[in-house]
Design goal:
Blueprint: E1 10-14, H1 19-29, E2 33-38, H2 63-68, E3 72-76, H3 82-92, E4 97-100, H4 104-109, H5 114-120, E5 125-130, H6 145-151, H7 172-195, E6 200-204, H8 205-224, E7 241-246, E8 249-254, H9 258-267, H10 282-287, H11 290-301, H12 306-316, E9 320-322, H13 326-331, H14 333-337, E10 341-346, E11 350-355, H15 379-386, H16 391-399
Helix pairs in contact: 1-7, 6-8, 7-8
């Protein structure tokens, strides 16, 4: 079997919910041996977050947990006990990467501050994913995906200009933080190859969102002399650059050049209203009367389907995209052709399809090797097999609540 990109790399994950687990999941997909640590008695909080199979809440049937933690081994460990911390350090001694999602204050209290760990394990790469980072006046403040999105500027720029800001879907801040963690981890591993020394990758979720959204806002401020504002479903520079309702959903239509707008109108049969010069001045349409144009556009498109309009766009070289729902994506022939979805058999939910990796390697393929672990599934394999504990030791650890 061809080796994967990170074959031979060992990763210990001590995180929760999305950011740290997603980072570790992608490392696992690239071939790293990832051991996920869950704290007893309840484990990762995503186990209590739906959607659940058959809408029946169950810690082994959370779709979010099953996706975020595939390709990992899983153990339970109470790191707040002296015995638990001792076991954690024994594991760290065998690791290349420590993906940790604990708050800085908690890391300090547990003796897991980066300086402490690097003194004991100089080759260890520590990937810390926190709301505000390990330094700065906000380092000890509590936050989640919602508050990091707001603090990083993303919420302010999302939604309609006349309405209040909107939150972003699908734990966007957490996912972006996890992706940044992947890049930082791989970069730190490359540096370790050159120097022999590990380092800490300090990922602030708010910084990640600010780098995306405030960056665009700063550019707007410099160029135009004012803060960028919410634009809803439209981009204000020209018309059309917007979303439109059609017979079976929505499309995105963007005509950055006048010739594309003309080709689109011709494909629609050049309705009488389109002959009015007011509907050929794309800047005026965008800035002076976009709602008026939206109404005639919606009436023109109401009997057209997404697929029909997409085909017209491809034929006429007009940028049109179908706004895909989750069901659309699941059935999408392009994703199917790229073998994006993978099947994994899980003891509780059976064989199911899951989203795969958002990349492909030509020489070191990613693999879906195992489903998300059951709670404490690999305790014996890790504590006895890796650390040399006896089965009696493991029973004692269970009885005392350490695992």
């Amino acid at each position: 079997m061809t080796a994967s990109a990170l074959s031979g790399i060992r990763v210990l994950e001590l995180g929760d919910f999305v950011a740290a687990p997603y980072c570790a999941r992608m490392l696992a997909d690239m071939g790293a041996d990832v051991i996920k640590v869950e704290r007893p008695p309840d484990g990762d909080s995503s186990r209590r977050y739906g959607p659940f199979l058959d809408d029946a809440p169950h810690p082994e049937r959370s779709g979010l947990f099953l996706y975020m933690n595939a390709n990992k081994r899983g153990v339970t460990l109470d790191v707040e006990t002296p015995t638990g911390r001792a076991l954690l350090h024994r594991l760290l001694g065998q690791m290349d990467v420590f993906v940790v999602g604990l708050a800085p204050r908690e890391m300090d209290a547990l003796g897991l501050a980066p300086a402490t760990l690097h003194a004991a394990y100089p080759r260890l790469v520590i990937t810390s994913l926190t709301p505000y980072g390990l330094t700065g006046p906000y380092r000890d403040r509590r936050a989640n995906d919602l508050t990091c999105s707001a603090a990083g500027g993303a919420t302010f720029l999302t939604g309609r200009p006349e309405r209040e800001p909107l939150t972003q879907p699908c734990f966007q801040s957490d996912h972006q933080c996890g992706i940044s963690g992947i890049a930082a981890t791989v970069a730190a591993l490359l540096m370790r190859e050159a120097t022999g020394e590990g380092q800490t990758a300090d990922i602030s979720e708010t910084d990640v969102m600010a780098s995306i959204y405030v960056g665009a806002n700063v550019t707007s401020s410099i160029a135009e002399g004012h803060d960028r504002q919410r634009t809803g479903v439209r981009y204000p520079g020209h018309y059309p650059d917007s979303l439109f309702r059609v017979k079976d959903g929505h499309i995105c239509l963007n005509c950055p050049q006048i010739v594309q707008w003309v080709r689109f109108l011709e494909a629609m049969g050049t309705p009488e209203w389109t002959k009015d010069p007011r509907y050929r001045n794309r800047k005026a349409m965008a800035q002076q009367y976009p709602d008026e144009v939206d109404r005639v556009m919606t009436d023109m498109l109401k009997d057209r389907t997404k697929a029909e309009l997409y085909a017209i766009g491809q034929e006429r070289r007009v940028p049109i995209a179908m706004v895909q729902t989750a069901e659309d994506l699941y059935r999408d022939p392009h994703l199917r052709a790229r073998e994006y979805f993978v099947r994994l058999a899980h003891a509780e939910v059976g064989e199911r399809e899951y989203p795969g990796a958002p990349y492909k390697f030509s020489r070191t393929p990613w693999r879906a090797l195992r489903p998300a672990p059951l709670y404490g599934e690999h305790n014996e394999q890790v504590y006895c097999g890796m650390l040399g504990c006896s089965r009696d030791d493991l029973v004692a650890l269970r009885r005392t609540g350490v695992v």
